[in-house]
Write a structure and sequence with these properties.
With 721 residues, the chain is mainly beta. The protein folds into four domains: 25-214, Ribonuclease Inhibitor (Leucine-rich repeat, LRR (right-handed beta-alpha superhelix), Alpha-Beta Horseshoe); 309-422, Alpha-Beta Horseshoe (Leucine-rich repeat, LRR (right-handed beta-alpha superhelix)), CATH 3.80.10; 425-528, Sandwich (Immunoglobulin-like), CATH 2.60.40.10; 534-617 and 664-701, Immunoglobulins (Immunoglobulin-like, Sandwich), CATH 2.60.40.10. The chain has seven helices and 49 strands. The strands form twelve sheets. It has a 17-stranded mixed sheet, with helices on one face. Strand 46 (596-603) and strand 47 form a beta hairpin. The longest helix has 14 residues, at 2-15. The chain is elongated. It starts with a helix and ends with a strand. Bound molecules: 2-acetamido-2-deoxy-beta-D-glucopyranose (4 copies). One 2-acetamido-2-deoxy-beta-D-glucopyranose binds at residues 72-73, 96-97. Residues 566-567, 596, 612 line the site of one 2-acetamido-2-deoxy-beta-D-glucopyranose. Residues 1-20 form the signal peptide. Keywords: Disulfide bond, Immunoglobulin domain, Leucine-rich repeat, Repeat, Signal. It holds the Pfam family LRR_8. Residues 426-515 form the Ig-like domain.
């Protein structure tokens, strides 16, 4: 509950309460009731006026009624933690200056047992932690001067519309932690001066339009822990003076941006602990007085999008921490934040923070990035550069690189600029989406996929039918949004299967896959998943290359292909390459003429299929020296992408035609009857293999994995196509 207490501090700050001042009590020599303590104590009025108040303290005495003969000068009467269940005006007779009465933690079950008819000097009444169930009309009508009323932690289920009648001086009302299921606007008509309303911790799941309209003086509203799912556009209308609002620990799945636009004076906003997945463009926009924003402890949050936080000229502190899945902050997520000094991003799943993000904050003084899986490559390289405007790192001692392996456990600040590459591979964080999800027939699904890299990657999805869907494409129930989200509307068993997101830039690609199960689709789904993948075949062979293809009934996770020449019995002559998801063919090049090879396709841990082949004899053998076994490898260009099964059966394109199709990059064909269309590999060039000369490890014969598929680290591969 740290957040709540922080919030209370802010409220106190707003109300100007100097709570830290310590002033000692002074003796008060009066006849004091038995067991009670009578002292002059410091006291602050609800409006922060300091007083030295004659105080009678009878806390924790198992009293069932008020002590007799209270000193008439008493201003503060404390009866906390007793067993009092009723109180009569006559018991307070003569206490003309009584300003605070604390009856918290007693046994009141009804305000009817609080028979106070006239106590106009009373400013503060504590009734928290009793057993009140209902507030009738005019429940506190004898307390016309009351400024603070604490009714939190009772069992209030209902409050009559006129319950607060007569409390027109009330400034602060605590109704939190009760059993209210609705918030009734009529309660507030009697409270024109109310500044603070705490009503969280009640099982209220929605707020009606104009719910707080009568509270034009309200400065702070706490709606924490309520089960709110959405806040309608007009819910907060009329709160012209509101400075702070908390939605801590609700069930909001989106930032309630339209409602927040109705709060012109907002300074503090707490949305922590809500199941928000994305902070989207314009979610926080033009909030001209916002000073602090918290987006913490969100288990679902995966990404902060382009222009998500825009034009908040007074924002000084942005805290986005403890979000276990947050792996992506768009380089231009923050716009026009001219006062921002402090950016807290610790304890997320961020692999990097783009230098553009940092450069977009002209006044940034400090940044906190520790406890993130930082990838020390080109994206975080700015940290080690000579920055014209240095930014202070909070806890630099515990801000470590977690990748690449050779920099692991080094402190980010201590890795020099030169040690980090200047371009880097896309990385789709494992936290982006789970590897398996099960949904009900008819549900709408959104799968978010984002990746950071330099240069900026493009993203596409490969769906179970084998088709590749790029952003801004709709197909059947599918839609891919520009940011990389795949939406499936009204999912049916047809959509069950294997999905892969591919993020790609000039350096390489990363993929991440998920299996979607649609409830009630058990059989169809199983049948398709069990379809054998083991039909590896040779489509063409010559002296130096062999063109392979295989059928993947469903799109498979990144597989790899290995090959070994006869005679090179030792395993270290084995060559291997990873295969992009969705690929169904590969051109093995630089083979030796007249040689046997064993070629195996490995899909997943247990699924391997192998074939033997023999290259054609060279017609005239001019034994060229560069055809040593070590140079065998080097493959070039792959190629057949994703023959959807429907495609194979349609047989409208010969295999040759298809290959030609592949050679036209960047042409995604999506005809209306998009069945069986062929998609070219996204960037034919990029699936080329790195030049063997770059990888001396290979010369020495080790199996290598090429870095072009989510592997990390090495220099950008030189392509041989
Ligand atoms: C109540 O307060 C007033 C003003 O401070 C004071 O003059 C008066 O003596 C007080 N009455 C009692 C009974 O203490
Ligand atoms: C290579 O291996 C195949 C299959 O094991 C075998 O039939 C063939 O005789 C071998 N060839 C040579 C040249 O060793
Ligand atoms: C396979 O690679 C070889 C050698 O680079 C090339 O000559 C051949 O045309 C390629 N085949 C296809 C179908 O791309
Ligand atoms: C692979 O085989 C092992 C041992 O036979 C088995 O324990 C494991 O579950 C299999 N994995 C998959 C993904 O089928």
């Amino acid at each position: 509950m740290k957040n709540i207490s922080m919030f209370l501090l802010q409220i106190q700050f707003l109300l100007g309460v100097a709570s830290s001042l310590v002033i000692h009590s002074m003796p008060w020599r009066v006849p004091c009731p038995h067991q009670c303590v009578c002292q002059i104590k410091p006291w602050y009025s609800p409006q922060s006026v300091y007083k030295e108040a004659p105080t009678v303290d009878c806390n924790d005495l198992l009293l069932t009624k008020l002590p007799a003969s209270l000193p008439p000068e008493t201003q503060t009467l404390r009866l906390q933690s007793n067993l009092i269940s009723s109180l009569d005006q006559s018991e307070l007779q003569g206490l003309v200056n009584l300003t605070e009465l604390d009856l918290s933690q007693n046994s009141f079950s009804s305000t009817r047992h609080l028979r106070i008819t006239d106590l106009p000097a009373l400013l503060s009444l504590h009734m928290e932690e009793n057993q009140l169930r209902h507030l009738p009309d005019a429940a506190f009508s004898g307390l016309s001067g009351l400024q603070e009323l604490y009714l939190n932690h009772n069992r209030l289920r209902s409050i009559s519309p006129g319950a607060f009648k007569g409390l027109d001086k009330l400034l602060r009302l605590h109704l939190n932690s009760n059993r209210l299921v609705v918030i009734d606007r009529r309660w507030f008509h009697a409270l024109p001066q109310l500044e603070v309303l705490m009503i969280g911790g009640n099982p209220v799941d929605s707020i009606q339009d104009l719910n707080f309209k009568p509270l034009g003086s309200l400065r702070s509203l706490v709606l924490a822990g309520m089960g709110l799912r959405e806040i309608s556009e007009r819910a907060l209308e009329g709160l012209f003076n509101l400075e702070s609002i908390s939605f801590y620990d609700n069930r909001l799945t989106k930032v309630p941006k339209e409602a927040l636009q109705k709060l012109p004076g907002l300074k503090f906003l707490d949305l922590n602990k809500n199941p928000i997945q994305l902070v989207q463009r314009g979610d926080f926009k033009d909030m001209l007085h916002l000073k602090e924003l918290g987006l913490n402890n969100m288990d679902e949050l995966v990404a902060i999008e382009h222009s998500a936080i825009d034009n908040l000229p007074e924002l000084t502190k942005l805290e986005i921490t403890n979000n276990p899945r947050l792996s992506y902050i768009h380089p231009q997520a923050f716009q026009r934040l001219s006062s921002m000094e402090s950016l807290m991003l610790n304890s997320n799943a961020l692999s990097a923070l783009h230098r553009q993000t940092v450069r977009s904050l002209p006044n940034l003084q400090e940044i906190s990035l520790h406890t993130n899986p930082i990838r020390c490559d080109c994206l975080i390289r700015w940290v080690g550069a000579d920055n014209d405007k240095p930014v202070r790192f909070i806890e630099p001692q515990s801000t470590f690189c977690s990748e690449p392996p050779e920099l692991k456990a080094r402190r980010v600040k201590e890795v020099s600029f030169r040690e980090m590459a200047d371009s880097c591979l896309p990385l789709i964080a494992p936290s982006m989406f789970p590897s398996y999800i099960q949904v009900k027939h008819g549900e709408n699904i959104a799968l978010h996929c984002r990746a950071l890299a330099e240069p900026e990657p493009s993203i596409y999805w490969v769906i179970p039918k084998g088709m590749r869907l790029s952003p801004s494409i709709s197909y059947g129930r599918y839609r891919v949004l520009t940011e990389g989200t795949l939406e499936i509307s009204g999912v049916t068993p047809e959509e069950a299967g294997f999905y892969t997101c591919v993020a790609q830039n000039l350096v390489g690609a990363d993929t991440r896959s998920l299996t979607l199960k649609v409830e009630g689709a058990g059989r169809a789904y199983k049948a398709s998943m069990q379809k054998s993948e083991d039909n590896l075949e040779v489509r063409d062979i010559s002296e130096r290359y062999a063109l392979l293809s295989w059928q993947a009934g469903r799109n498979v996770p990144a597989a790899h292909l290995s090959w070994l020449a006869n005679g090179s019995l030792e395993d270290h002559h084995r060559h291997s390459t990873r295969i992009l998801a969705g690929t169904q063919g590969f051109n093995l090049t630089r083979l030796q003429p007249g040689t046997h090879y064993k070629v195996c396709l490995h899909m997943g841990p247990n699924e391997t299929s192998c074939i033997h082949l023999r290259t054609k004899e060279a017609p005239v053998v001019t034994s060229s020296p560069d055809l040593t076994p070590a140079v065998l490898l080097a493959v070039s260009a792959l190629l057949l992408l994703l023959a959807a099964r429907t495609c194979q059966s349609s047989a409208s394109l010969s295999w040759k035609d298809q290959m030609m199709e592949f050679e036209k990059p960047h042409t995604t064909i999506l005809s209306d009857e998009a069945k069986g269309f062929m998609v070219p590999p996204p960037y034919l060039k990029q699936v080329c293999q790195p030049s063997p000369s770059k990888f001396s490890s290979e010369e020495s014969g080790k199996e290598i994995s090429y870095p072009h598929l989510g592997q990390y680290g090495k220099e950008p591969p030189k392509e041989v196509c």
